[in-house]
Amino acid sequence: MSMTRTNEPSFRESVDLMFNRAVALMDLPPGLEEKIRVCNATYTVRFGVRLRGQIQTFVGYRSVHSEHMEPVKGGIRFAPSVNQDEVEALAALMTYKCALVEAPFGGSKGGLCIDPRQYDEHELEQITRRFAYELAKRDLIHPSQNVPAPDMGTGEREMAWIADQYARMNTTDINARACVTGKPLNAGGISGRVEATGRGVQYALREFFRDPRDVAKAGLSGSLDGKRVIVQGLGNVGYHAAKFLQEEDGSKIVGIIERDGALYNPDGLDVEGVRNWIVKHGGVTGYPDATHTAEGGAVLEEDCDILIPAALEGVINLGNAANIKAPLIIEAANGPVTAGADEILRKKGTVIIPDMYANAGGVTVSYFEWVKNLSHIRFGRMQRRQEEARHQLVIDELERLDRYLGDAWSMTPEFKQKYLRGADELELVRSGLDDTMRIAYQSMREIWHDRVDVEDLRTAAYLVSINKVAASYRAKGL
Ligand code: NAD
Questions:
Q1: Which terms does the record give in the GO molecular function aspect (predicted)?
Q2: Does the predicted model carry a pTM greater than 0.90?
Q3: 179 and 200 share a domain?
């Protein structure tokens, strides 16, 4: 992969540079700007676990960027490359992300330096529980103070272990389940959380394509139908985004980049087929019906309409930015474009839908899950049948009309069936997510179009979110 990072700032410095570009356009009181930018605290924990007859020491982090609202929120990443700089950058992005989509949280993030593929399930459970114990005893996992979620290398399984560990340590806490989100449904989770971030990427693109002016800024036209997409990382976020765009919007997934190289097929790849292949064979290598390139990163530079980096940070950098052909990039991953690459792409006219907005679907549905846990009731449980009963009244009335009009008009059975059904939790979650993604995009769009000094969506996103964080500090003091 072309990852040459000559003179590139670190991930955290990159986030700060982007923040600085935005605050330069704002009129914040002296000092407040710095208060918002800095990371409040980062805890490093080192702990030992006895594995395979030996004690192994692990290093983990939990960083709290801003506590202007509590609890603070942000995922826990399991990867060998995890370090303090990365965790702090990701925590800062969480602050801005939550503010932008109006999830009432401050920003936080956690990470454990580990390659999860080197351990079996039982070992991973021991390690995760021990990490959770270290964090929980310092209130770095807590329903009202700090609520983690999944990120790279973690998912429902790890969240269930963390929730259970917290509950064992806090046996009388009636809200214990709200200490972490992204749990499986049978352990206090919510329908639609697994797909949420990828679903949010789809909703973000749909909103982008609703305004022909935005589409034209990227030099594109029409809708998502037929658009050629390249996605990097077919994990939780990349898989769901690619799958929904292919199945529901008619987009063509022409390239998929994974750890062991990339697949390319100008006629489109079958996302489900590739995913199944990865599950079975551990990578994309050998997948039929596509050209395989061992140097996967090179495919970031292939011709396409929409590029979706959904794996790691810093993959579009000074080394390859000038060669990126996609006119539209949606940052499903956090920080995939470095500050230097961002400048090059902006000058080229590439439109970038920024990470803090593009992947906010995860935290949005995490917010719904947290509310569900605190209210101890599934969404829709009280209303669903009542809604159906009211719809039945309309159907009865229409059926009366039907009989009266004879052959002139009749209600289709499909309409009747669809209309009668009250919304279940999944539908409510998707509706709440769609609404959130639309409103947040519209707030960026307004600034992007109205302010001549704002040339890109990222700056617009920062302006919206920093304003909200600043307003919160102003209202309550420091
Ligand atoms: P994941 O672990 O489920 O998937 C990551 C995928 O990227 C895997 O398929 C992995 O094989 C692939 N990958 C790893 N290294 C690669 C490389 N060098 N080249 C190409 N592919 C590579 O992780 P995820 O949860 O989908 O997270 C991906 C990104 O999305 C991260 O930046 C994360 O911070 C961000 N994100 C995730 C969520 C969430 O809800 N899971 C929410 C917001 C943002």
A1: glutamate dehydrogenase (NAD+) activity; nucleotide binding
A2: yes
A3: no
Find the mean pLDDT for residues 443-448.
Answer: 98
The domain that holds 164 is classified in CATH as: 3.40.50.10860
Going from the Cα of 231 to the center of ligand 1, the distance in angstroms, rounded, reads 11
CB under 8 Å to 408, separation ≥6 — which residues? none
Q: Whose CA is nearest to atom 39 of ligand 1?
A: 151
- For residue 316, which of 268, 373, 376, 257 has the smallest C-alpha distance? 257
- C-alpha distances (whole Å) from 281 to each of 83, 124, 208, 285, 362 are 30, 21, 36, 8, 28
151 in contact with ligand 1, CB cutoff 6 A: yes
Contact by Cβ (8 Å): 229, 308: yes
Give the residue among 310, 118, 155 at the shortest CA–CA distance from 231.
310
Q: Closest ligand 1 atom, CA of 153?
A: 2
CA 94 – ligand 1 centroid, Å:
16
User: Do 316 and 354 form a contact (C-beta atoms < 8 A)?
Assistant: no
Question: What is the residue with the minimal CA distance to atom 18 of ligand 1?
Answer: 259
Taking residues 459-478, report their average pLDDT. 92
- Give the span between the Cα atoms of 191 and 372, in whole angstroms: 11
Q: Is 314 exposed, middle or buried (0-12, 13-18, 19+ CB in 10 A)?
A: buried
By annotation, the residues acting in catalysis are 109
Looking at the domain assignment, is residue 387 inside a domain? Answer: yes
Q: Of 339, 333, 393, 340, whose CA–CA distance to 360 is shortest?
A: 333
Q: Is the pLDDT of residue 411 over 60?
A: yes
SS3 content of the chain, % helix, strand, coil (to 5): 50, 15, 35
Is there an atom of ligand 1 within 6 Å of 311 CB? Answer: yes
Examine the fold and report which residue of 157, 187, 217 is the final residue of a domain before the chain moves on. 187
| CA–CA dist 36, 20 (Å, integer) | 11
Token representation of residue 73 = 């929120």
For the four alpha carbons of 356, 360, 362 and 363, in that order, the dihedral sign comes to: positive
Looking at the DSSP assignment, which residues form a beta bridge with residue 59? 46
Handedness of CA 133, 135, 137, 143 (dihedral sign): negative
- Give domain status of residue 229, yes or no: yes
- 25, 76, 197, 213 from 207: Cα distances, Å: 26, 29, 15, 12
Give the tens place of pLDDT for each residue, 100-152.
999 999 999 999 999 999 999 999 999 999 999 999 999 999 999 999 999 99
For the beta carbon of residue 462, count every other beta carbon within 10 angstroms.
28
Is residue 375 annotated as involved in ligand binding?
Answer: no
Residue nearest to atom 15 of ligand 1 (CA): 259
User: For position 273, which CATH number holds?
Assistant: 3.40.50.720
DSSP line for 318-369: TTTGGG---SEEE--SSS-B-HHHHHHHHHHT-EEE-HHHHTTHHHHHHHHH
Amino acid at position 295, single letter: E
